[in-house]
Structure formats: C-alpha cells, structure tokens
Design goal:
Blueprint (H helix, E strand, L loop, with lengths): L1 H9 L3 H23 L2 H17 L10 H20 L5 H9 L11 H6 L3 H12 L4 H8 L3 H19 L9
C-alpha cells in the first residue's frame, strides 16, 4: 500500500499524501515524543518530516519498504530540532529540575521514565527495536551505523534499562 501511495504522491496526488499522513501521524508522534522528550518540539519534527516526505517523494525507492525510509527522515528531523532547541531551556523546566527530589532506591520506576532517562545513543535504538519492531539491520541503516555498533548500543541500552528498573543481570539470583 505504501509503495503505491508513494507513486501516487510523486504524480501529485494530494489525497494519497493525506492517506499516508493519516496512516503514519500517530505512530510518528509517539516516536518523536520518545526521541525528543518535548511535546511541542516533537510536533515540529513530525510536521517537518512529512513536508520532507512530500517534497522528496521522487527520491523514494519503491523496491524498499517505506517505514525505514520515513523513520530515517523523522529521526533526522528529531535530531535537527533537538540541536536547534538544546540551548533553549524554559524557566519552568529549570525550576522543576531544581525542586524534583531524587528517587529513593525502593521506589518503583516507570519503564517510560527509565527509557526517557537514557542517552539518545541507547534510547533511540531501543525505541526502534522494541517499540517499532525494526530488525537490527534496518535500525543500523536508519541510524547510519555498523550493525555490530548497533548491537553493542542495544546491549548497553538494555543493561542501563535493567539498572534503572532494578533488575538483576541475567535474571534473578538464587
């Protein structure tokens, strides 16, 4: 469906673009929010990603799956927005950072919070692997890294998540 839709978009069919947008918007927003960690910036990244898909639809190779191509564009936009906005920290967020108490060791940790606390280097591959079900090869292509590098990042990311969630390495100890 996506390949045919993209062919129609290349020919100037705006309804086809609307269908593609409707099919991928929610999915793209969830991904962008997880990557960027800021709702408004995520909206900017998603909007710009769809604009780039529309403008560059002629570059899409219909012999390849659409999702990895789209998410490559989306992630680049997320990185661009984060780079643009990283110097801007609203005063309200600064105050929240000051007043937040550190978590106690016996408190339960939310998986979402644990994931959001990871560095982008580990968080983004984990999102693509476990939330979007991409293969390691597809993720390596999207992130433009070697597959072995990606496997290392996934391993380290899982270890960091395990530590944040308070689990034991390789299961529980007897």
């Amino acid at each position: 469906m996506d390949q045919a839709c993209m062919q129609r978009i290349v020919q100037g069919d705006r309804e086809a673009f609307r269908q593609l947008y409707d099919a991928y918007f929610d999915y793209a927003m969830r991904t962008a929010k997880l990557v960027i960690k800021h709702n408004e910036w995520a909206k900017d990244a998603v909007q710009e990603a769809f604009l780039r898909v529309y403008r560059n639809s002629w570059q899409y190779d219909t012999s390849k799956p659409f999702k990895p191509w789209f998410y490559c564009i989306l992630l680049r936009e997320c990185y661009r927005v984060m780079e643009r906005e990283k110097k801007v920290v609203p005063l309200g967020e600064q105050l929240e950072r000051i007043t937040v108490e550190p978590q106690l060791p016996d408190q339960q940790v939310d998986i979402y919070e644990a994931l959001q606390g990871l560095e982008d280097l580990y968080r983004i591959p984990l999102i693509l692997k476990y939330l979007h079900d991409y293969s390691e090869k597809e993720i390596a292509e999207v992130l433009d890294v070697n597959v072995n590098t990606l496997k290392s990042r996934l391993f380290k990311g899982r270890e960091k998540m395990r530590q944040r969630l308070g689990g034991d390495q390789y299961g529980t100890q007897a």
